[in-house]
Structure formats: structure tokens, C-alpha cells
Design goal:
This is EF-hand domain-containing protein. InterPro entries: EF-hand-dom_pair (IPR011992). This protein is 60% helix and 6% strand. By secondary structure, the protein is mainly alpha-helical. Among the domains are: 73 residues, Recoverin, domain 1, CATH 1.10.238; 64 residues, EF-hand (Recoverin, domain 1). It is globular and about 75 Å long.
Length: 213
């Protein structure tokens, strides 16, 4: 989608979807970047960009599968925010499409960098990203622009990884993990209270009625 079609505000989109948690807010904000004002849909061609903007990295096969889940039946080749958000939230809470850590990415580049130079040529980097099966051509071009060193005409991948990992201000998977932890603690607290009540009831049953009198 052309940049001049990208809305600078998510207010019109947010108003059509009732946000219930921080994770949904991240998803809605990403979706709103690719909509025109007062329009609550995006073309399926922008779906991968929205998902990657959130901080997820699906493979091409996973993206095709996800597209089939959220594509509008009434308006082919479009995705409505009210369908997209719950499906996207479900995938994140299942920790699907999760990107590699900085250490994992660095190790992968070390494997490619057989001469241990700390850098790769532009052509080699483009080929490696294409084979990764998770970036479209526009994403690859943007990644190259971000990492390219014009003085040495190469890409220092440790700098690229640092920039890449810093693109997402809030990690959606960290939010999902935190929600799981909060739910577990709440459940544990409820179980503890239930056990306390049961124990108290058992103790009362054991008291001799004559003693109570």
C-alpha cells in the first residue's frame, strides 16, 4: 500500500473495535497504520505487513493459512478489523509466528559468514532473506536499507539485528506471557482460598459438639 494511503491516526479504527487489553491495543494500532480513515478493512496484500509490524514473523505458508482464516467472505481480498484482532490475538497467545531471539539470529548469521568478517554482501543478504520464507520483497528491500553501510558496501549483521530487535517497542509475546502468569497466579490464589475454606470446614466438623456447648 502506498505511504500516502496510510492513516496517521488509529482513532477511527479503534472506535469500531472494543479494546479489552494491551495486546489487542498493539494489534489494532498496527492494523490502523494500513487503513484509510473511516475504513475498517485492509487488503489481504497488506496482511503480512501488519502482522510483521506487530512483531510476528510467519512463514509464507503460515501467512497463506492465516489469510484464509481472516479473509472476508462478503468482500474477497479484504480483512475486517473485527475478524482480524481476535484471530491475531489467538495466534500470539499460542506463541505462534514468534521471531527468533537476538542470539539465535546472530548464530544464524555466523553460520552464513564463513569467513567470520562480521558482515555480508548485499547480494548474499538478499538471497538469505529470500530463502527465509518470511519476508516479502518490500520487507527485504527495507531490511537492506536499514542495514547497508555505504562506506564499506556491505551489511554488518550485528548492527542490523540490533536495529531489527529494537523496531517493536512492546513485545506482544511478553504481554501474552505476562497475562498467562497473572492468570496462573489468580488461579493459584483462588485454589488457595478454596483449600483454606475446605480445611476450615473440616476442622469445624471435627470439633466435639459437647465441647462447643
Amino acid at each position: 500500500m502506498a505511504e500516502d494511503n496510510i492513516s496517521n491516526s488509529s482513532e477511527s479504527v479503534i472506535s469500531t473495535f472494543e479494546i479489552k487489553n494491551d495486546l489487542q491495543k498493539i494489534i489494532v494500532d498496527a492494523f490502523s497504520l494500513f487503513t484509510n480513515e473511516n475504513i475498517n478493512t485492509i487488503p489481504t496484500t497488506d496482511l503480512g505487513k501488519v502482522i510483521r509490524h506487530i512483531g510476528c514473523v510467519p512463514t509464507e505458508e503460515e501467512l497463506i493459512e492465516f489469510t484464509s482464516l481472516v479473509e472476508s467472505q462478503n468482500e474477497p481480498n479484504t480483512v475486517d478489523i473485527n475478524v482480524f484482532v481476535p484471530h491475531m490475538e489467538k495466534q500470539i497467545r499460542a506463541f505462534r509466528y514468534k521471531p527468533g531471539t537476538a542470539d539465535e539470529l546472530l548464530q544464524a548469521f555466523h553460520t552464513l559468514d564463513t569467513e567470520s568478517k562480521g558482515s555480508l554482501s548485499v547480494d548474499f543478504m538478499q538471497q538469505a532473506l529470500r530463502e527465509g520464507d518470511s519476508l516479502d520483497p518490500d520487507d527485504i528491500t527495507e531490511a537492506i536499507k536499514t542495514a547497508y553501510d555505504p562506506d564499506f558496501q556491505c551489511i554488518y549483521y550485528d548492527i542490523w539485528i540490533h536495529k531489527l530487535m529494537g523496531k517493536t517497542k512492546t513485545d506482544p509475546y511478553a504481554l501474552a506471557a505476562n497475562d498467562v502468569a497473572l492468570t496462573d497466579r489468580a488461579r493459584a490464589a483462588q485454589d488457595g482460598e478454596l483449600n483454606r475454606l475446605l480445611l476450615s470446614s473440616e476442622n469445624n466438623d471435627d470439633i466435639d459438639p459437647a465441647v462447643q456447648d
